[in-house]
TrEMBL record:
<protein>
    <recommendedName>
        <fullName>UDP-glucose 6-dehydrogenase</fullName>
        <ecNumber>1.1.1.22</ecNumber>
    </recommendedName>
</protein>
<dbReference type="InterPro" id="IPR014026">
    <property type="entry name" value="UDP-Glc/GDP-Man_DH_dimer"/>
</dbReference>
<dbReference type="GO" id="GO:0003979">
    <property type="term" value="F:UDP-glucose 6-dehydrogenase activity"/>
</dbReference>
<feature type="binding site">
    <location>
        <position position="30"/>
    </location>
    <ligand>
        <name>NAD(+)</name>
    </ligand>
</feature>
<feature type="binding site">
    <location>
        <position position="269"/>
    </location>
    <ligand>
        <name>NAD(+)</name>
    </ligand>
</feature>
<dbReference type="Pfam" id="PF00984">
    <property type="entry name" value="UDPG_MGDP_dh"/>
</dbReference>
<feature type="binding site">
    <location>
        <position position="334"/>
    </location>
    <ligand>
        <name>NAD(+)</name>
    </ligand>
</feature>
<feature type="binding site">
    <location>
        <begin position="155"/>
        <end position="158"/>
    </location>
    <ligand>
        <name>substrate</name>
    </ligand>
</feature>
<dbReference type="Pfam" id="PF03720">
    <property type="entry name" value="UDPG_MGDP_dh_C"/>
</dbReference>
<feature type="binding site">
    <location>
        <position position="35"/>
    </location>
    <ligand>
        <name>NAD(+)</name>
    </ligand>
</feature>
<dbReference type="InterPro" id="IPR014027">
    <property type="entry name" value="UDP-Glc/GDP-Man_DH_C"/>
</dbReference>
<feature type="binding site">
    <location>
        <position position="86"/>
    </location>
    <ligand>
        <name>NAD(+)</name>
    </ligand>
</feature>
<dbReference type="InterPro" id="IPR036291">
    <property type="entry name" value="NAD(P)-bd_dom_sf"/>
</dbReference>
<keyword id="KW-0560">Oxidoreductase</keyword>
<feature type="binding site">
    <location>
        <position position="158"/>
    </location>
    <ligand>
        <name>NAD(+)</name>
    </ligand>
</feature>
<dbReference type="GO" id="GO:0051287">
    <property type="term" value="F:NAD binding"/>
</dbReference>
<comment type="similarity">
    <text>Belongs to the UDP-glucose/GDP-mannose dehydrogenase family.</text>
</comment>
Length: 443
């Protein structure tokens, strides 16, 4: 099929590459000229495992192209995907200006039937707005062209995006007629393993499904983080608790890891956006609001532990951070707990020595050159001469350090384990003061 994708970010680029890989002819369009220039040169602007090879292979095979020419891109695809950003507005609602701008552009240029599919995460009712925008732009030029709109929210996870797209748990398709449903069933047929995973529903339910899924996951994290705070104060070990409750099949082990709060471009903004949508229609969400409050509090937990260790005096201290991206296997630092920690440390007069396997350029882009931030080439260099080390993001390479060597390199052997990946007694045996999340009693 001929497919056009607006937005070449994490979602648009992965969608484009994966759809091209199943034999479709895909044109990816973006307004960011630099991004398109880099992609055209074969450079991948984001870090996502496997993406570089997939993009190169499909470009070489002639099935994947990049452009800033929206009119040509609209001419290309019968299927037009909108995969642009929906960042939070000041009041927490999703800002739809990029989505509606794309709808307007498509309406201004389409000359033939188009199926316009919203893949961005958008509040319930957005497809109606997309439809209105398309109709307005078409009639503004005195034309009459047929189109359908559909909602097809994306569930991929950064860091495992290609696998998630290629082997989805489900594909949600929101439509209001059979023609649109048939096109999307055909497009996704190659991604249905063993049985049909495409779930066709009405548009509003599809739009809500995406928020419901993210909020369910965010709630599990915040609940577990809240329990970890209770465990900390009761001298219990949340890790023992986690293993025991996860054994209950009704609870399960997924997404019940305590940590230093969730970040990323989706959970925080989607939690806020659904609370805002509900509030606008006169329903105050209780649990959803608490999920955000708990998360904001949890993001200060690493700083709080450092402050407690150093009796409230972090001025002049040097703190090493391992991991800056909001989770492993990505370079994305949007709303990352590492940002909250670094900013609090700087406010307290500390210096940060930091290392992340993929997010160093992004850190440099966000914070620029500053005296209290030393960007290091590896984990050991970051720890050298530090008064404390904080594991913020659980990249694989941080899993089994030589703690005796680390204790030798550091000014003071103090470790805050923001993801509970180390065995406290093992770390303590190397001379460290160890602080985990919700495990003051841990051995
Ligand atoms: P992103 O910020 O990485 O990329 C968005 C891209 O859209 C940018 O390159 C931007 O230049 C481009 N753009 C903006 N206006 C445009 C226009 N008029 N025409 C063409 N391109 C335009 O965003 P993302 O992380 O890929 O997220 C996109 C959407 O998907 C959001 O709604 C997000 O909530 C949702 N989503 C994201 C993820 C994720 O893991 N990142 C997962 C599922 C859903």
């Amino acid at each position: 099929m001929r497919v056009t994708i607006f937005g070449t970010g994490y979602v648009g680029l992965v969608t484009g590459a994966c759809l091209a890989h199943s034999g479709n002819h895909v044109v990816c369009v973006d307004i960011d000229e630099d991004k398109i220039a880099r992609l055209t040169r074969g450079e991948i602007p984001i870090y996502e495992p496997g993406l570089e090879t997939l993009v190169h292979d499909n470009v070489e095979a002639g099935r994947l192209r990049f452009t800033t020419d929206a009119a040509a891109a609209i001419d290309h695809g019968m299927l037009q995907f909108i995969a642009v950003g929906t960042p939070p507005d000041e009041d927490g609602s999703a800002d739809l200006k990029y989505v509606l701008k794309v709808a307007e552009t498509i309406g201004a240029h389409m000359t033939d039937y188009r199926l316009v599919i919203t893949k961005s995460t958008v509040p319930v009712g957005t497809s109606d707005k997309v439809r209105e925008q398309l109709a307005q732009a078409i009639s503004a030029r005195g034309a009459s062209v047929e189109f359908d709109v559909a909602s097809n929210p994306e569930f991929l996870k950064e860091g495992a995006a290609i696998d998630d797209f290629m082997k989805p748990d489900r594909v949600v398709v929101g439509v209001d007629n059979e023609r649109a449903a048939d096109h999307l069933r055909a497009l996704y047929a190659p991604f249905n393993r063993q049985h049909d995973r495409t779930m066709v529903m009405d548009i509003r339910s599809a739009e809500l499904t995406k928020y419901a899924a993210n909020i369910m996951l965010a709630t599990k994290i915040s609940l577990m983080n809240e329990l970890s705070q209770v465990a900390d104060r009761l001298d219990a070990d949340i890790e023992q608790v986690r293993k025991a409750i996860g054994a209950d099949h009704r609870i399960g082990y997924h997404f019940i890891y305590p940590g230093c709060g969730f970040g990323g471009s989706c959970f925080p903004k989607d939690v806020r956006a659904l609370a805002h949508t509900a509030s606008k229609i006169g329903y105050e969400t209780e649990i959803i609001n608490a999920v955000e409050r708990v998360n904001n509090r949890q993001k200060t937990v690493l700083f709080d532990k450092l402050q407690a260790h150093f009796d409230g005096d972090l001025a002049g201290k040097t703190v090493a951070l391992w991991g800056l991206a909001f989770k492993p296997n990505t370079d994305d630092m949007r709303e990352a707990p590492a940002c909250t920690l670094m900013e609090a440390l700087w406010d307290a007069g500390a210096t940060v020595r930091a290392f992340d396997p993929e997010a160093m350029d992004e850190t440099r882009r966000i914070y620029g050159e500053r005296d209290d931030l030393v960007l290091c080439h590896d984990a050991e260099e970051a720890a050298t001469d530090a008064d404390a080390l904080v594991l913020v993001t659980e990249w694989h390479i941080f899993r089994t350090p030589d703690f005796h060597e680390l204790a030798r390199l550091m000014k003071q052997p103090v470790l805050v384990d923001g993801r509970n990946i180390y065995k406290p007694s093992y770390v303590a045996a190397a001379g460290f003061s160890y602080y985990g999340i919700g495990r003051s009693a841990a051995t």
